[in-house]
Design brief:
By secondary structure, the protein is an alpha/beta fold. It has helices at 6-9, 26-32, 46-56, 104-114, 134-145, 220-223, 284-290, 303-312, 316-328, and strands at residues 16-20, 37-41, 77-80, 118-124, 148-156, 167-175, 210-211, 216-218, 236-240, 248-251, 272-275, 278-280.
Length: 342
Amino acid sequence: MLELTEDYEKSLLKLKFIDLFAGIGGFHLALSSFGAKCVFASEWDKHAQEVYENNFRIKPAGDITKISAEDIPKHDILCGGFPCQAFSISGKQRGFEDTRGTLFFDIARILEAHQPKIAFLENVANFAKHDNGNTLNIVLESLSNLGYKVFYNVLNASNFGLPQARERIYIVCFKKDLNISTFQFPEKDGKQSTLKDHLISDQEIKSDFYIERDDIQFSDKFKNQLFEQTYYKPIRIGTVNKGGQGERIYDINGHAITLSAYGGGIGAKTGLYSVNGKIRKLLPQECSRIMGFPPNFKIANSNSQAYKQFGNSVAVNVVQSILKRIVDTKCLNLKEEPILAQ
C-alpha cells in the first residue's frame, strides 16, 4: 500500500462507502486507508467472503442481483470491480435499459436508488474495446443519464509502486451537482520497485513450489547475462515445454506479469520466475505483496483460492492514488459541510 500523509489518512473520515463485487477487499483497503467507513459489502463467492470477513469483520452479502436497493444503507461512495460480461443488446443506444441482464445493471439500479456523490469502478483494460467500444459507450451513457459526470482511464500498476504489469480501466463518476468539469488521473505514484524486492527468502519456501524439468530453455541473451540491470516491466528470459501461456519464465529484476484468476500451464496464474538459479511460481504471499495488500492481511488457507482471489482483485496502490486525486478536487467540502449519508 502507498504511504499516505496525515491529511490524506483522515480526508474521507466522514464518508461511508459500499463495496460491490467486493472480492477479498482491495477497494475496502484503499478507502479505509483514507478514513472512510464501509457500511455494506456484497460478494457471491463463499471463499472470498470468508477472507473478507476475517480481515474486516464484515461478512459480505451474497448475490447482488437478489438484493434490493432498499436493503442497502445510504452511502457517499459506491465502489466495485464489476465483472465484464456480454451486453446482449449493446449498440441500441438505450443506456440504462441496455444494461439489463448484466451485472453492471445492478450498479446502475443502486445508483439510481441512492444517488451517492461518487461511484468508483474498475474493470479489465479490454473492457474499453469490448464489442467495438459499444459496451463502454452504454456504460458511460447509463452513468450520465443517472446524473453523473464520468471520467475514465487505463492505468498500469507498474507505475504505482507495484512490480506487476497490470493494466485496468478505472471509471470515476461525480454527481453532476458537484460541478466537477475536469478530472486528471495520476500517471504514476509511489517508489518503483522490482519483483526481487518483494520475494520471500528461499529458506521459507517449500520444495513443491520449484519446477524441475528437462524442457526448460533460456534465451541466448539471458545466457550471456544481459539482464543484470533493473527493468520496470516483465522481462521474458526462457520457456518450459512449448512456451505457451503459463510456460514462460521471467527475470526477477523486472516486473511480474499480470496475476490471473484463471489460465493453464505449469506457471498458471502467476507466471514462472528464475530465483537464485531455480524456477518457480510466485507464492500467494508474494502475490499479496505485488497487489499492494499490507503484511498483516490474512490470506486464504488454500493456495488455489488465494491465487484466484488475488488474480481477481484490484491493485490497492492504484486505487489509493486515484482517491488522492478525488480528495484533491475538494468536491465534498468535508471540512465545511456534514455528509448527508446516515
